[in-house]
């Protein structure tokens, strides 16, 4: 649930505020704050908003426009970001504004949640004039000063914003967004020239997956003892999702192998993780750790994630998500388009009633000293699970788009990096899998001897997205 950066929200109880734009349960502002914030509350939008938007947050708040001044800010320099919000309905206590920045070169994220006059932190966990205090019909001018990092590598920094409370976000009904209820505001140009190895030139990886012979059998026990796994095509070590480079800092790493036959797709994912989370219990005792559909939010802790878009286009139509964590708990869903349908901040996420009828096993691995070093996930997925594919099982030569992630705390490393082109659901960045049949038997030579069966050697290649 290529997925946002984490937030540590706290529900705030506020008393009534009967001053400019604040009638929704908040402590009264000081006289100084009242005077200071008057210029930021308007009865009508300015006529000169340079960039108009219409992002609809649950019919309660609209982001109607923005301004960057200047629109080009080189590394180490500042720009002023101004958002124009319209309050269409009152919100209950605890809702806050957030802003994330993304360096489109490295994928590195930044946070501006508590920057600006409206967002000054009060009592440790709320904002001076955040959306919980807004009055219906008013326009709120939300200003922030942003200093472009000196280490920025991209030609632009993308600005995302939204409204959050604890683990929830106001759902975006319409308007430009990232699929995770963050409005895409716009791009600040940095003047940095793209490098020769910029992500636009990095192709998605590709693998050819050889079909098992008729008498080969995989036992799903997490052990991967079969010799077929030794010869299976491998993704190799996962990489940094933002740069496509080897993972040097993220606390987990991983790789995956694949096999197939007429009945199942077989996956073996191996994760290096010294401290895998083993604390999922049930939805009743841990409601915040489970979706509205009753599935564990594995991505918030530790899991292997597999995305499958069963055609070569990478168009995000009729794709599938599967996660299996170190406790062998499963999250599964099917999506019609990019992260849709969406039931809101707590789901259901996609069609959570999709049942692949898979068989899985997990082996928690330890070193010679007895300490945990990671875990292996072995799974057999019946081809019938991918009913929206043109062919299931695929025909030899068919190409599907697939990606793998090793997740920890809502972040991860990947087989195919996303490179700032969306989130973990962006199927245009999924790798290419070609399903291959074994070679036909070769007849014995004139000199005699038994026939020899040749198998295609697993190949790893690169193909353009």
Q: What is the multimeric organization of the chains shown?
A: single chain
Q: What order do the SSEs take from the amino end to the carboxyl end, as H and E?
A: HEEEEEEEEEEEEEEHEEEEEEEEEEEEE
Apparent shape: elongated
Cα separation of the termini: 21 Å
Number of helices: 2
Helix content: under 10%
- Number of DSSP-assigned strands: 27
Q: Which keywords apply here?
A:
Immunoglobulin-like, 9-stranded mixed β-sheet, 27 strands, 2 domains, mainly beta, about 475 residues
Can you characterise this structure?
The chain has helices at 31-37, 227-231, and strands at 41-42, 51-57, 61-69, 78-87, 96-103, 109-111, 121-122, 126-127, 139-147, 156-165, 168-169, 172-174, 183-189, 204-210, 233-234, 239-240, 253-260, 264-272, 302-309, 319-324, 330-335, 359-366, 372-382, 399-408, 411-414, 431-436, 459-463. With 465 residues, the chain is an all-beta fold. The protein has two domains: 31-189, Sandwich (Immunoglobulin-like); 199-463, Immunoglobulin-like (Sandwich). Strands 14, 16, 19, 20, 21, 24, 25, 26 and 27 form a nine-stranded mixed sheet that branches. Mean pLDDT is 86; it is low at 1-27, 196-200 and 440-465.
């Amino acid at each position: 649930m290529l997925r946002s950066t984490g937030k540590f929200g706290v529900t705030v109880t506020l008393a009534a505020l009967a001053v400019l734009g604040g009638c929704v349960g908040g402590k009264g502002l000081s006289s100084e704050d009242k005077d200071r914030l008057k210029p930021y509350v308007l009865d009508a939008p300015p006529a000169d908003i340079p960039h108009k938007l219409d992002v609809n947050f649950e019919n309660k708040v609209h982001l109607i426009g923005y301004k960057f001044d200047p629109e080009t800010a080189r590394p180490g320099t500042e720009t002023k970001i101004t958002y124009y919000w319209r309050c269409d309905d009152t919100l209950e206590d605890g809702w806050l504004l957030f802003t994330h920045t993304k360096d489109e070169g490295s994928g590195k994220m930044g946070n501006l949640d508590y920057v600006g006059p409206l967002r000054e932190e009060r009592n440790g966990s709320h904002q001076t004039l955040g959306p919980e205090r807004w009055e219906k019909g008013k326009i709120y001018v939300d200003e922030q000063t942003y200093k472009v990092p000196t280490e920025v590598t991209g030609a632009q920094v993308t600005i995302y914003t939204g409204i959050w409370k604890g683990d929830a976000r106001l759902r975006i009904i319409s308007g430009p967004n990232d699929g995770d209820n963050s409005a895409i505001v716009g791009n600040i140009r940095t003047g940095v020239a793209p490098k020769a190895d910029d992500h636009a030139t990095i192709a998605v990886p590709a693998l050819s997956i050889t079909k098992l012979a008729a008498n080969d059998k995989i036992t799903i026990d997490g052990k991967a003892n079969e010799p077929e796994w030794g010869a299976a095509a491998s993704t190799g070590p996962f990489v940094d999702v933002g740069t496509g480079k080897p993972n040097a800092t993220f606390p987990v790493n991983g790789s995956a192998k694949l096999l197939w036959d007429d009945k199942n797709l077989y996956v073996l994912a191996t994760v290096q993780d010294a401290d895998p989370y083993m604390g999922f219990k049930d939805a009743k005792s841990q409601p915040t750790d489970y979706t509205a559909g009753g599935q564990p939010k594995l991505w918030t802790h530790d899991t292997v994630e597999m995305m499958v878009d069963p055609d070569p286009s990478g168009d995000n139509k009729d794709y599938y998500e599967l996660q299996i964590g170190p406790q062998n708990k499963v999250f599964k869903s099917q999506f019609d388009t990019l992260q849709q349908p969406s039931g809101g901040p707590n789901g259901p996420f996609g069609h959570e009633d999709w049942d692949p009828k898979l068989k899985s096993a997990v082996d928690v691995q330890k070193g010679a000293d007895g300490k945990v070093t990671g875990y292996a996930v072995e799974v057999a997925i019946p081809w019938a699970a991918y009913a929206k594919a043109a062919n299931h099982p695929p025909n030899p030569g068919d190409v599907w788009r697939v990606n793998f992630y090793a997740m920890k705390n809502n972040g991860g490393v990947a087989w195919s990096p996303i490179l700032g082109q969306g989130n973990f659901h962006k199927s245009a960045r999924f790798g290419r899998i070609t399903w291959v049949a074994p070679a036909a038997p070769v007849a014995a030579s004139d000199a005699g001897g038994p026939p020899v069966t040749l198998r295609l050697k697993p190949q790893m290649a690169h193909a353009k997205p």
